[in-house]
């Protein structure tokens, strides 16, 4: 699905990430940890072609991102659901429209999808807030709306960047639950977080691999969390 | 890209309601764009009218200049007929003269009427006899004709119109050129103004564009929302401007017979359709300008 082959990334200064190689297998569940500023968000941006690697090769669904044009990248993003660290919405449209945005922009905004939309909204517990505007949502509600938006296209891969960043433990658990359920449905999941408790909580429910960015490199963390 | 056919143009005008909602409405920029488009179209109508009118005038005068002249015979009353006959004979023999015709008393009276009133007794006044000379396309040798006339018809004066009409024709041609330059400048200004407005809208909606891009919208989808708005807005504004401009020209007081320059400002016959080209042309300018502005903005986004 997403493959990184000896990838390096720098923002112009020294290299932030070096010699990164990883293959996200279908149906796998990964955590990505590392200290703040280590490059977790940067790594995920490489995975949805918001950034181009400065060296090495990133392949999305078998295609080198360097050979993709802007339309190819747009099409690939429809198959990758992303929960961004700084979640942004169209603030003038209600939550329901924002969650349905990926459908709208890809021209799949049909009637039977509206049934799915309602189901999805109640699944993330936002049914009552469907008509609210994004600026009226709480932090946790924003995170859940972002997750709903990330999965509405039924993407093959879901990348979540600190999805539990500013919500309490109970809500974090609930969100994790949603992601675990998606994984059981066959989705490939990658969660960037520095919340070790969350990782521990997940380990009881799924076969999760934990990756750590340390010293610019990607390491597989031990099972001793 | 394939050539857009009519259904595509229709789709563009009807639009995608969903796509339209993606970009929040922009009150002040929208109104300003509409207003400026209307003002520019209004000016374009006048520039166009000026070009057309002066063009017509230059052509007409240029034509007459090239092909007609007047012979004036002033002589004592008892000689005037003889001299007229002599002059006509000379003219008939002159190469380059297509025809020559002495004006009748009625025609002379009609020419004088604006100055002296209808009851002028032409016959009793020592009015010179006028002979209208029409030239062949090659023209005649004015110098040679003058020499011959001075020998055979002492009272004849050849007025070949060139002296006083040439500067007028030159001025009219220059005015026509200025009119076309004005039209170019007007459309150029319109393009610049729409580019500025579109850039402002694109900048104000940077977050919207970024979000759309991140959820998998293609550049063309995002651009369309902006391009459509500005194109239709410009079309609407220009249509209003043209309507007001045409009305203003129709309301100009007319005094066609005097044939002055100002009163000639207007279109004739099918020429009235000419200003109708302005709104679609303005819309095209808006389309291209917004398209380029959007492409420039999107190119820098991940
Ligand atoms: N656009 C950018 N230009 C220059 N430097 C950047 C840019 N984005 C990020 N960085 C730098 O790259 C480093 C890694 O940033 P990144 O956002 O990937 O970290 P992170 O691991 O996600 O951190 P956090 O846990 O705080 O979210 C940081 O030092 C950051 O300042
Ligand atoms: Mg981060």
Automatic annotation (TrEMBL), chain A:
Protein's name according to its UniProt entry: Cell division transport system ATP-binding protein
GO molecular function: ATP binding; ATP hydrolysis activity; transmembrane transporter activity
PANTHER family cross-referenced by the UniProt entry: CELL DIVISION ATP-BINDING PROTEIN FTSE, IMPORT ATP-BINDING PROTEIN
Superkingdom per UniProt: Bacteria
InterPro entries: AAA+_ATPase, ABC_transporter-like_ATP-bd, ABC_transporter-like_CS, ABC_transpr_LolD-like, P-loop_NTPase
Domain ABC transporter: start-end pairs: 2-222
UniProt organism field: Lutimaribacter saemankumensis
UniProt keyword annotations, A-Z: ATP-binding, Cell cycle, Cell division, Nucleotide-binding
GO biological process: cell division
PROSITE patterns with a match to the protein in the record: ABC_TRANSPORTER_1 (PS00211), ABC_TRANSPORTER_2 (PS50893)
GO terms for cellular component: plasma membrane
UniProtKB/TrEMBL annotation, chain B:
Cellular component terms per the entry's GO annotation: cell division site; plasma membrane
Presence of keyword Magnesium: no
Topology within the bilayer: Multi-pass membrane protein
InterPro entries to which the protein is assigned, alphabetical: ABC3_permease_C, FtsX
All residue ranges annotated as the ABC3 transporter permease C-terminal domain in the record: 182-296
Subcellular location: Cell membrane
UniProtKB keywords: Cell cycle, Cell division, Cell membrane, Membrane, Transmembrane, Transmembrane helix
BP GO annotations: cell division
Residue ranges crossing the lipid bilayer per the database entry: 32-53, 175-194, 200-218, 230-252, 272-294
Keyword Secreted: no
Xref: Pfam families: FtsX (PF02687)
Descriptive protein name: Cell division transport system permease protein
Source organism of the structure: Lutimaribacter saemankumensis
């Amino acid at each position: 699905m997403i493959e990184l082959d000896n990838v390096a990334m720098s923002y112009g200064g020294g290299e932030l990430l070096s010699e990164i190689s990883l293959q996200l297998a279908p149906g796998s569940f990964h955590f990505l940890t590392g200290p703040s500023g280590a490059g977790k968000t940067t790594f995920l941006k490489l995975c949805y072609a918001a950034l181009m690697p400065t060296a090495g090769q990133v392949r999305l669904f078998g295609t080198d991102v360097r050979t993709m044009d802007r339309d190819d990248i747009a099409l690939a993003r429809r198959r990758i659901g992303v929960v961004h660290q700084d979640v942004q919405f169209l603030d003038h449209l209600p939550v329901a429209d924002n969650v349905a945005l990926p459908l709208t922009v890809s021209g799949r905004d049909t009637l039977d999808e509206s049934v799915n939309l309602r189901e999805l909204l109640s699944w993330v517990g936002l049914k009552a807030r469907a008509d609210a505007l994004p600026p009226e949502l709480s932090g946790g509600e924003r995170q859940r709306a972002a997750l709903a938006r990330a999965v509405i296209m039924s993407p093959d891969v879901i990348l979540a960047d600190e999805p539990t960043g500013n919500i309490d433990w109970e809500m974090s658990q609930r969100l994790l639950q949603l992601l675990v359920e998606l994984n059981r449905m066959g989705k490939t999941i990658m969660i960037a977080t520095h919340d070790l408790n969350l990782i521990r909580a997940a380990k009881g429910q799924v076969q999760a691999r934990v990756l750590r960015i340390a010293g610019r490199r990607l390491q597989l963390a031990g099972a001793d969390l | 890209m394939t050539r857009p056919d009519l259904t595509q143009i229709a789709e563009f005008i009807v639009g995608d309601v969903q796509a339209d909602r993606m970009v929040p409405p922009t009150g002040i920029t929208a109104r300003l764009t509409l207003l400026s488009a209307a003002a520019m179209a209004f000016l374009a109508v006048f520039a166009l009218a000026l070009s057309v009118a002066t063009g017509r005038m230059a052509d007409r005068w240029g034509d007459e200049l090239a092909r007609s002249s007047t012979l004036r015979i002033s002589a004592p009353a008892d000689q005037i007929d003889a001299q007229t006959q002599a002059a006509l004979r000379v003219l008939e023999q002159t190469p380059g003269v297509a025809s020559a015709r002495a004006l009748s008393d009625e025609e002379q009276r009609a020419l004088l009427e604006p100055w002296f009133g209808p009851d002028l007794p032409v016959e009793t006044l020592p009015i010179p006899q006028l002979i209208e000379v029409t030239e062949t396309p090659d023209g005649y040798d004015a110098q040679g004709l003058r020499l011959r006339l001075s020998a055979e018809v002492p009272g004849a004066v050849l007025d070949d119109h060139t002296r006083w009409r040439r500067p007028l024709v030159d001025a009219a041609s220059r005015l026509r050129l200025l009119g076309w330059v004005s039209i170019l400048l007007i459309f150029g200004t319109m393009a610049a103004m729409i580019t500025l407005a579109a850039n402002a809208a694109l900048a104000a909606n940077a977050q919207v564009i970024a979000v759309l891009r991140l959820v998998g919208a293609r550049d063309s989808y995002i651009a369309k929302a902006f391009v459509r708005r500005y194109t239709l807005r410009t079309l609407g504004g220009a249509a209003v401007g043209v309507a007001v401009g045409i009305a203003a020209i129709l309301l100009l007081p007319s005094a066609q017979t005097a044939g002055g320059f100002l009163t000639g400002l207007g279109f004739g016959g099918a020429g009235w359709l000419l200003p109708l080209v302005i709104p679609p042309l303005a819309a095209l300018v808006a389309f291209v300008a917004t398209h380029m502005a959007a492409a420039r903005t999107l190119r820098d986004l991940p």
